[in-house]
């Protein structure tokens, strides 16, 4: 069932055409990561960016909005945009820079969808489905303890929760954005791998909390633990300072 | 962009294999709609259903859970399950009975996803995107006034909101469940078409409220209006008594 | 239990000192309702308002923000604030103008709190508590049919839902804002009373939906129906055009 | 303003009459904490509890439901209730056992209310209000580093967030449940004080995340960080195993 769209055939993994917005996002991101644009530094004006990249105003505005939503730049009214935060090297080392905007969007969408899957799983999961979530969790924890976190175990954990939600439409949705999700997991894990032992333990703890809440049949706690985990993942990916 | 999965090729519309659970759901549903099982009547026991349909206990349990979640039957602890509500004829006239469980699941998933798209659209939509949502709304309203509600205009409205959310992953997700969604729209519209003028006006009002909240930049109101509209759609589909 | 704070004695109803912000809000509101400031008209600048009312800049900003949040004015970046909507006469006829900002805030807070009480009531209410909610609903409906909607029946309905939530802290919270809530109910009812039959039926329908969802044990639907009802109440209070 | 109900006089702190339900909850809790009832052990039947405590069936049911909602016992259908988790000694050492049910309810209600205050604060807080939240945070952190966590600094932090929400009704609501909240903070801090350095750092980190999200104007992250913090507080209070 996994890997096929709703009523569709299994899909080939062809890399999606990248929008101009996401290309521009990627180029600005690269300059922030490399330090060509430093924290606190002012970005060129919208007008200057239009000219330099030969793109239209709406494209520039959307790219800046996405950088802002991701916490990388901030706007000061009537003054311009400034670099707020320098993400870790890993962010563009493990994913093409022009894929990062899409990858961050996938995490945002998953915060909505997986909060719901975790809630429903706490209410509806059968004993066998709980077991499958736990098995994925144990595999993930083993790989993390060995400092070789498994992308497949991580995705399997999230998919097992979705399958336990009793609503296949959620599974279809997660699979439809699987490519971005797997890439997001790879980036996050690559950054975690290089991080402290404390960080690895935090990530393990976050997954364990999701499972405990589902197994304990606490829907509010399960939804919250899932959304919090994805929020943390988003911050680990973008925030250099947190990369202890 | 629409119609293709994330990183995939446009998908053929092949009808998905129907699970045993959804087949069983469909058969019980048919008996409720036909009146073979009357409102208030007790269903056969889980054990009897296992035997009659030659399916396993977990299949029976899941089918009953879905019927319960959809408000069609209710469980009385230690006694059994009873028919709670008789849905309108249109429900199985305009969709195969074994597709109804999936169609209801798609609406549930959309309540989660589209609440988020409406919220984000209220915050992020550009002027051009607001115009596109309004254009779809006007086309939908015109078709409804002519008592020939347009499925495509309805889907276009919801998709325009998703596109205005500034997050393509949501668009990908809605497209991935497009088949079920379009069928749900068809069923709801067929029932609305046969309903009172008051009902048609209520449905128009619901869409108008979503648009007003997005255009008015009120994220809370937009998310709420969208979720409420889908909740009402779900009830119109299943509740005979409301079919005024 | 009702009427007493958490751990406190029953409180005297003394009218709270009105903040400068809410006084300023009330004065601008009066001019919008009277038509001295017309729909679409530009408000004086922040600076001019500071001078005219002899208040500080933060007071002006907060008053304008509240008017904006309530949908009465809108800001156009770099241009100023404009009247967006003219509320019905009833809004300042049945409540002191300087109490309206607080009354709107109480509704906003109740959207959060009562969404939760309705959800928990659907999960936890005992049979007796369901009966009490229904009794309050029937009394409210009778008063509405007689075109003399009862404030006490309305408040009793909302309080019965809170009591069925199984969490007394919510009851304490609703009672702590009882004065504003009762005034908001009075204003809404006075406007409803003067409205069309269709409007009265819509308000009855909203309450009925909340009850049905709680009695049907559907937590998502119950929370949604409650939040939607309060959103509608807020709009009925402020939106002249909707006052059919 | 703080300490007074909406439109009321400052309230005396008189200890509220304890309901039979909460007294029964407290007595069962004491037996779980003392080990008289061990983890995994079966509780007496509802009938036996009715007789032993001379209370009615509804009182027993509500007490058991609250214990279940708080994760202390679990029901196995058709078998009975079993002790699920033994809370730390501190829970009844620092608060009367018959106040614990109310204290847990206050945390649950705050999860709803403070998620909203954190969201609105991220959207609406002025610079001065952000400063006040940060000042409370710094005072709280200083007290925690000195291993003497300050109850007043903790409450002040949460109140400063509510005041920054731009909605006084939320402040009124928090003050109305202040007694329970302060007691919950005392219990949580007493347990934290006796815990590991890692635990103290986690609690500090949770507060810091709430502040960062508000200061960064990220409403979703702020609401989530606040709800997560209160969820963790609830678990720290009740879960012996987590008391590292």
From TrEMBL, chains A, B, C, D:
Presence of the UniProt keyword Lyase in the record: no
Domain HTH gntR-type: 18-86
Record's keyword annotation contains Cytoplasm: no
InterPro entries attached to this UniProt entry: GntR_C (IPR011711), TF_FadR/GntR_C (IPR008920), Tscrpt_reg_HTH_GntR (IPR000524), WH-like_DNA-bd_sf (IPR036388), WH_DNA-bd_sf (IPR036390)
Domain of life of the organism encoding this protein: Bacteria
Pfam families, sorted: FCD, GntR
Keywords: DNA-binding, Transcription, Transcription regulation
Signal sequence bounds: none
A GO MF label: DNA binding
UniProt-recorded name of the protein: FCD domain-containing protein
Organism: Halovulum marinum
Lineage: Bacteria, Pseudomonadati, Pseudomonadota, Alphaproteobacteria, Rhodobacterales
